[in-house]
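Lesson 9: reading folded outputs for more than one chain in a single document. The general rule is that every protein is listed as its sequence immediately followed by its C-alpha cells, and records are never interleaved. Here is the first one.
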Amino acid sequence: MNKKKIIVPLVLLLAIAVYFVVFYKNKNLRYIPENADAVVLIDIKKLTGQYLFSLAANPSQWSGNKSKGKSSGSLKDSGIQIPDFLQIFHIKNTKFSEWYSVLELKDSQKFIAFLKKKNFVDKGNGRFQKDQIFIMINGNYCVAGTSDLAFEDIQKKLLKTSSNPVLDADQLIHNTAGSISFISGKKIQNFSIELNDNEIEIKNNSNAEFFNSITSKLQTGNHFLDLELDKENIRNLSRFFNKSIADSSQIAYFKTTADLEQVNDTIISYEYDDNFNEVEKKTFQKIIQPNYTIDIKSDNPEKTWEYFQSKKWINSENQFTVIPFQPNQISQNKNGVAIKSTRKPVSLSPQLKENYIFIRNSALLYSSLKMLGNTEKRIISDVDYILYGNKSQDYWIKIKAKNGELPLILRW
C-alpha cells in the first residue's frame, strides 16, 4: 500500500483533532441569568495553552510534584465537565461579595468524593460548604458561589428553564485570557483581563502610556497606601458599598496617605486573689495599625459635616468612628474635612491631580492575615503592588507581582 495514502489521512485527522482540542470553543454562554449585572469570563483553553507554553519554556518544572497531585486531587479528575469558558456572574441587587457559577458534571458521585477530599462539609440536600465557598449539586449540574442566598433562584431560572437567552462569548471577550463585563439592559461594557509573566492587567483601553506614567511616579514613594479620587470616581466606587453616600455627603475630592506599623496593644483584665480582692492584670499583644492622613474636599463642607454627624460617624471626642483603628481626630475646615491618626500622623504625599489607588505590599500586611492558609499567604506575599487608575473613560487595574524566575501562571 502507498505510504502517502496512509500518511495524508492521518495528518488530516491529527489536524482536525488538534483544532477541536486546542482551538475550537463552544461560545454559547448558557449559564448567565437575565438579571446578571456583571460577568467574569475565563477562556479556559487560552489559559491552558498559555500554561503549556510557559511550562515548555521552563524545563525545571517538567517533573512537577506527583505526590502532591495524587494527594490533593485535581479538577480534571473531579467529575466536572471543564468548560471552554468559565462563566462567573453577579446578580443585580445582591451584595458585591456574592458571585456564582454553574458547571456541568460528568459524574456527580465522583464530584462529591472530590469535595469531601477537599474537606467540604456536607450540609445535606446536595449542599456543601467550606469557609465562604458554597456548592449545590442538582443532577448533572452544580452551582458554586461565595454565598448560597441565590441558589434557589438560579436553579429555577437557569436549570429548570430551557428558553434562557444565550449570550455569545464574542460579546464579552476578545482574544484575552479573561474579561469582566458590566451589563445594563442591552449595554455591555467590557474590560479585558490579561495574564503576563509578572502581572495581571484589567483594562478597557490598550493605551497604557498614561497609566505607566502614574506608576513610575508612585513607585518613587514608600507609603503603604496612596489614594486620590475625584467626585466621579468616588461616586463609582461608593456604589459597591452604599449607593447614596457620595451624593449625600457632597464629597468632591478624596486623598489619603497611609503607612502600617506594628505596635504593642495593652489588654487589661481583672482577676481575684485568695481574699477576693480585685487585681488588675495587664497583657500585651502585637497588632498591625495604620498611621494615616485623609483630606476630604467638599462642595458644601457644612453639609458634609452634618451628614457624618447624622450617621453617628463622629463621636463626642471628635473621632471618626468609621475607621476602626482608633484613636484619630476629625476636624472641619473651609474646604471640607481632615482626618488624622493621632498616634503618629503621616504627611500627605504630593498631589498628582489624577485618579488612582496605589497599594504597596508589606510584610506586616500578609503576616497579620491569620485567617488565610499558607497558599493564600504565599500568593499575597508575592504581590508587589496593586494600582487602579482612571482618566476620562479609560480604566486600568494592575496587580504587579515581584520579579521571579517563573511566570505567574506557574507560580500561582
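And here is the second record, again sequence then C-alpha cells.
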Amino acid sequence: MDTKYISPDIGVLRANICNSPYFEGFWKIDRGVSVNAYLLTGEKKVLVDLYSEWEHCDQQAESQLKEYGFALEDLDILVMNHMECDHTACVADLMKRNKKLHIYCTEKAAALLKNFVKLEEKDWERIKTVKNGDTLSLGKGVKSGTELSLTFYETPNIHWPETMMTYENSSKTLFSCDAFGSYGALNDGRVFDDEFSEDEHRMFEEECLLYYATVVASFGVPVKNGIAKLKDLDIAVIAPSHGIVWRKNPGAIVERFAKYAGYNTGGEQDKHICVISGSMYGNTSRGTEALIEGIKETGVPYTLLNIPETPLSHVLAQAFRSKGLALAFPTYEYKMYPPAVHVLDMFARKHIYNKTVARIGSWGWSGGAQKEYEQLTANLRWTNLESLEWQGTANEENLADLKALGKKLAESL
C-alpha cells in the first residue's frame, strides 16, 4: 500500500513530475516537483486541491485514491483553494464522472472557473462560494469517529487573487495550496518533514527558495498579510500542494516564507553578493575576474552565475536573497547584452528590490549599455555604485579599478 495519513481520516495523494523540466512552462526544475492533494473521509468525502493531466498526475492520484479504498465517484466535495491549471485542469472530467460532486471555493475562484472550465449550465449550481471564516461540517471521521470540519481563510494574491487556505479543525491541519510549498519531487514514498535527513532538508530548502523566487516573489506583502491572518491559528500540520508535508515542525516553513517575503519588503537580506556575468568574447569575463578578486579580499561570500548558461530560475533565486549584486555584461549594438535585458526584465517583474549594485562591462565601437541599464532599473530601489566600462580589453588600470570596485561593493554590505 502507498497510503500516507496525516490523521486517521486524512490521506495524502501525491503525484510526481520527474520528466518535465519546466514549471509554468519556463522555470527549470531539475529535481522535479510534487503535486499534492488530500482525501478527507468523514460522512462527507472531500478532496482538498486537485491536479491536472501534467505527466499523468491525474492517473497517479486516482490510482492512490483506490489504495485508500475510494473512487472519484465516491467524493462529495472538492475544495479548490486555487485555480491555476496545475490544480484545475481535471475539473470538467471530474464533474462529468461524479454528478453529486460540489465544489467549494472563493467568489473570485468561481468567476475564474467559468472561464477555465466549460461546464454545462446546470452544473453551475454545484459550485458553492465561501468567505473568510466560513465553516463546513464533514460529519464523523470514518476511522476515528471524530467530528471533522473545515474553516476557510481567504488569502488573496498568494499567489493569485482568488486563493484561499483551508483548515481542518480536529487535526489542526492547514491545507495551504501553493503557499508554503517547494520544488523537489517526492518520488520514494516519503512525504513528511520528519522522514528526511538534514542533508535532504538542505536540498529542499534550496528548492523552496527557487520555488518562492520564481512563483511567489512578486507577492511579498500578501504573503506577510496571509501569515499575519493565520498567526493565532493552532497549526499542527501544514499540507501544501507542492512539496513536503510539515507535521513535526510546521513553523519552519512558515518562518522560511516570512524570511523570503522580507527580502523585497524591507526585511533583512543575506550578506551575500550575486555576481551575474555575460560575455561575448571574454573581455567582460576578465573584468569580472578582477571584480571578484576585490570581493574575495573582504571575505564576503559570493556566487558567480554566468548567463545565458545558468537557468533564469537560479539567477533569480540567488539575486533575490542577496544584499549585493554585481552585474557584468557588455554593450551590444548600442544597448545592453540581450541575455542581461531578459534578466533585468524578470527582476522588475519579480520585484528584486533594495540591492546595492555594481555594474561593469566592456564595449566595442561604441557604448550605450549604461543608458538602457538605467532605464530598466529605475524603479527597483537599488543603490548603485559607480559603473565601470572600458573599450575592448581591460588594461592594468581598468583591472585595478575593477578590483577596488569589488572590494567597495563587499564592504558596503
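What the second record shows: DSSP finds twelve helices and 22 strands in the chain.
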